[in-house]
Amino acid sequence: MHDVDELAAGYAAGELSPVEATRAALDRIRALDGELGAFVLVDEEGALEQARASEDRWRRGTAYGPLDGVPASIKDLSLVVGWPTRKGSLTTSDAPATEDSPVVARLREAGSVLIGKTTTPEQGWKGLCDSPLTGDTRNPWDPTRTPGGSSGGASVAAITGMASLNVGSDGGGSIRMPSAFCGTFGLKATHARVPLYPPGGSGLLSHVGPITRTVRDCAHMMAAIAQPDSREIYPTQRDPRSWLDGLEDGVAGLRVAYSPTYGGASVDPQVAEAVRRTVGLLEAHGAIVEEEDPGHPDCRDAFLVLWDAALGRIVDPLTDEQRALCDPGLVATWERGRELTAFDFLEADSVRAAATLAFNDVLSRYDVIVSPAVTTLAFPLGSDVADPATQTHWVDWTPFTYPINMTRHPAAAVPIGLSQEGLPMALQVVGAHFDERTVLRVSRAIEKTQPFSIWRSEREL
What we know:
alpha/beta, eleven-stranded mixed beta sheet, 461 residues, two-stranded antiparallel sheet, 13 strands
């Protein structure tokens, strides 16, 4: 599968065609998606119509930019004109949306070819990707295992070549968890850097952003989607700098805080060793690395208060008959949320504030914090937890991701190789607020020191 730079150069030279690229993506969907279940909707006719229009622009020298004609998928929590928004739920309807979410509008304006909508657990409630509406989405590296979630369909689409650009969303790690399990690159930018509309059900925890195969593709995608929109209720200012500026500058002289456990998380030994090895590569390339934990308070219970309250509000208006159609885990979330008080919520928000200050302190002394992305390898389908003997909720295997939703810092999941079982492993890079460019710079350095092509060649997807 070609990356954005290759596609744009090929389109400009007349050596590649947006129509050919779109047909190739659709062929991949037809060949693989019956088993993997990444898409809930594929609009072949509409995609080819967009691709033909893009091809005409390239021929006339009026292409909108490097994303013109590049196939893109949209997670089925975002609005796309003419397509339904089912959210993985049997309680939603097939009524088509009448407006685009900001991220969709920006991709459309960039000329990207919107090919379809990818799967999500019901209402995006958990870090897996099964739902009452679509069943299981499967991990391409081992279809008996989960791809992670909630943007599981988007990560599967990215790694298998079903789409080059993939929109995910992230309330507790939902871009980074499936990226870690599938071997894709995923970025959760600073809160509201990529505008979100309709407003996220989980409030300040909610983010939307890119999942791609490469860091450069992500940077190209951010150039399109990280634009202010009046519908974002927590707006940020326009940033005129190029998202490619500094991307290739390497890590020499950068200060890296290496936190192997965030103060006590139990990490799979293979993942822990892969992260250590990668941190050593950063140091060998000139980074100044010191081991330091963020020192944040235990966020688990506070996160679940904020999460249960948010998801509970979504479920509360449903009838008993509708709730009977829902994922039982989502209903249990609603039941917990109903018991919460305003005092509980404010206490949880005070923990969020304390965690933010703790990460701010570390990031005032270091350029980035590097850690594992998740504690585990992708685990078998049929369970919401990696180890039922010690874990009771999906947050128990992802203690590196959900605190960063609470603090609203930018964070990326970066692939760093395959385990002995042939499953992807990943680390997380966290940066200061609105410093996505340093996160991307460090991620690109990792990508260059251990190119994806080397470890992915062990099993081409």
